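Subgroup meeting minutes
Present: P.N., E.W., G.H.
Scribe: E.W.

1. P.N. recapped why we're keeping a running log of single-chain structure predictions: easier to compare across weeks, and new members can see raw inputs and outputs side by side.
2. G.H. added today's entry (606 aa).
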Amino acid sequence: MVKNTLHSFDDRIEEMDVKYKKVLGNLAANLASSTLKLKSRYFHRIGAAGKGSLKIYDHVIFFPDHEIFSPGKKYSVVLRHSNCLSSDDDARLDPRGAALRIGDASTPLLDLTLKTGNAFHARSIGDFATWLVCGAAAREEHVKHSPHIRDAMWHSLRRADSYTQLHYYSNICRLFRFKDGQEMYVKFKLRPYDRAIGEDNGKVEPIGILPPETGAIPRDEGDQRPRLFLADDFQRRVSSPDKVRYVLQLQIRRVPEDETTREVALDCTKPWDETLFPYIDVGEVTIDQVLNKQESDDLEFNPFLRCPEVDVIRASSCNESASMDHGRSVVYAICQHLRKKKPFPEAWRAFLNQSDVKVDLSGCPMAASAAGEEFVKEVTLERPWYLTFWLATAQPFLQIFLPYFLLGLVASAPFNLIKMGKIQMIYLLPLFWVCSGIAAGVVCGVSKWILVGRKREGEVEAIWSVGIFMDTIWQAIKTVVGEYLMEMTSGSIMFNLWLKLMGSEVAWDGGAYVDSMGAALNPELMQIEKNSVVEREALLFGHIYEGDGGKVKYGKVVVRRGGFIGSRAVAMPGATVAAGGSLPALSLAMKGEFVNSQLYYKAFAM
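Output recorded in log:
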């Protein structure tokens, strides 16, 4: 009754409906086939790249306090400019691109893919796939009824003299979560630092219903510039004393309450009204180091790169506006793996195999080769005698003494107050029990951060390490405190507060019902969204020992909106219960499993 596959899943694909999977699968297969033939990018094949920094302004007006885009912060950045389709001549008319990575190469925060023109020509991934396969006559007939699509096509074209003198737009919305709890839709823009360079610089005036295929537009007669003059110009400007400078701008609006208005806001074919939603200058990008051609070609940008503060808006249907960003992230990832000949996940192979286009994946590795690696003969649980002596004597004593010592320390003060009072002790004992239990819960939460700190998803620790020892001490404290009072509060707001004190992401809006101490095993690795339920004695493991080199591995357990985990069910690290999904009582979700509600409906129907 749990989806138990032997390969990793991709939750972006799992949450798509059948039509969405079919449309995106065909699109991905077509572009994957082209990528294998070209052995290069399909779009934005040639360009120029550089490194630098992003400095957020010390004062950003009309912008709420945000964790990443907060005043004074500075980040490393990588910027790659490119042509959309023209791969041999920069003088051709073409949309120009700017891919910006914010953060270090090892720990990037955000990848932005921007282009010239403040709108895109396809609202959804379904529209984009249809546009690619239909002929010129069908496209012209379509834009007669949607003239803004025609405008988007023409406004994206630029006759460029320099990549650095153009304005670049994201067209796509992201979801920002601010420190005060607000959620807003945000669009990005990169403009030249010189305000004299206007948005219409390099603009191409329409000469027909739709522009011809940009790769086929010849350069102007008499143009003697080198074929790759834009790349040369970029490198020259980066190496100059003035460097290359841009201003990063954000356009924000509140998330509409009704679905219809949200669809309008997410429609990337229609730019937002700048009088209602003006662009806000948030920071300055300075590029001061040139990347060579190989380094530029090796760059990979991930549109699905996200964090709690900047999230990708999901879609379940190919007709939703959000599917443009959500769907393309899957295609990007597939094509990048094929281009780089990286190990190809089985989930993607199955996804492509279901499409109408057959892709030859015989040359793609399924996993990193283990050939030539020597077999490790040492016993992973082997330990020196003094560590064995410690584990057999001192550690058990400490695990018993310290929790009860802390509990006695917490309870002593209120107990002394009871003895000093004139009211009989029997009437004050319930109040004493609750007050001392709450205080013990707070002490347990504080000791968790002192002894254990924060375990992060993907982190690995040796089983005999100091970190694991500290964790066992804290687990003993938690057990004593739980038996004293906190276990009795499970299913209440007090229990949720205790979990949040220890680092859990437990939703408040819409409510989340958690009735199990098993959710507190690794509290900071638990994400329980609104309207979700975790029933009594369910176990949510944030850690696992696999016998691999004596290492304990950590992974996050996610219960999405409306998800359900039944009594005595077990969820292993990396398990995700889908929105509306159900992990029934006494069931097991294996490591990395994706639990989808449809599976259970079918099972119960049988």
